[in-house]
Amino acid sequence: MKLELRGLAPGTRLGVLAGLGRSGTRAMEVPGCLLYTHCGSVPHLTHDTLDALGRLPAVTQLPLATVAEHQEVLEAFREGAAKLAGLHDTVLFCSLQDPAAPCPAGYNTSKSVSLWSAAGRIELTVPKYVAMQAAVRPDWYQSLADGDAQPAGSSLKRVRRSVERTLTHLDECVLLHQKTAELVGAELFGVVEGADVREERVRSARETAKRPVGGFVLDGFQSGVMDQALRAQLIAAVTAELPRDKPRLVLGVGRPDQVLSCVEGGVDLFEGFFPFVATERGCALCFRFAMEPDPESAVQEQNGVTEDGGSSRTEDPEHQDLQQMTRFEMNLNDRRYRDDLRPLVVGCGCYCCRNHSRAYLHHLLVTKELLAGVLLMLHNVSHYSSFFSSVREALATDRLETLKSVVLGV
Ligand SMILES: [Zn+2]
Description:
Elements: E1 2-5, E2 15-20, E3 26-30, E4 32-33, E5 35-36, H1 47-51, E6 59-63, H2 71-77, H3 81-84, E7 91-95, E8 113-117, E9 120-124, H4 126-136, E10 140-142, H5 156-179, E11 187-192, H6 198-209, E12 215-218, H7 228-239, E13 248-250, H8 256-264, E14 269-270, H9 274-280, E15 283-285, H10 295-302, E16 329-331, H11 351-355, H12 358-366, H13 371-396, H14 400-408
Parallel strand pairs: 4-14, 5-6, 6-7, 7-10, 10-11, 11-12, 12-13, 13-14
Antiparallel strand pairs: 1-2, 2-3, 8-9, 15-16
Helix pairs in contact: 2-4, 5-6, 6-7, 7-8, 9-13, 12-13, 13-14
The protein binds zinc ion.
């Protein structure tokens, strides 16, 4: 794996992660987001409908929490989760927790980390964790980490313990990784912890960077646990300690405003769960990211009116939980879409917007048709992926401030 970066303004990163996967033939542009899956499948979409999306991210994310209960099946299969799920041409990243599901805190010990699967809590020691990864056979995986220390909710002593445990887990993971035949050629990513304590964040980053890791996972910055200004300061402090030539992936950040802030702080990769959580609440992503909008929508923007008839100036709290709708979405359950024959987003080229209307999606949602999730997911994944293309274009043309204004509607 090789990260080739283009020379840009200090702090920001734009480039290509090349030589990916065990064959070393795949590449992914950064900043970018991974393809989110449950147990190796994109929720709501079959392989056929997934093809309607066109070009997919080169890296697919498989949260271990969604596959852990099938460890015995994977061990018997012996060819890894990607092949079992029919993902033939992808780079598989196996993370620990599911970013779209709640993860209760307070269950980790000095020797174990709790994983929350559909079947309940699974207590993982490092040997058990590496054995699970050996069954999954990912191309990338994160090391076991104690992410329980919460900003503003944990004592300094608990935060330090979280950093210590995570480093100890990493050292053990490195040793076992080197002895595990199924993981030859896989990249182990070290996890940076430290909650909201700057010195601990810096220590965690500095110490993790000394280990033989392929990249870095930044944990504890999830939406809802800290405000944006603090997240931006801490991420800048962390990335300043990390080597320039290895990728940085942040966990649990999906909102477009928070993604842009992390990109400014030097983050390369994001989990792609945000389109899924919007779909689950019956919402379509509708935020703008075109840096040259058409003249008609520009006039509407000046008047503070968005395509869905709502105000682009509405704010929502940064501390809101993952399940709450954000200002980047429109809620198709709302009766006001009952007779609205426009596509979800005017000008969107996705399958859903080319063929169906807001009124039809509203009807599918109120009658609880499964097709609602399929069509919403197609639009939301497509919209989110185009947003990331726009982020890369903005970095390439030095217009990140323009893109921020468009996305934030200011
Ligand atoms: Zn669309």
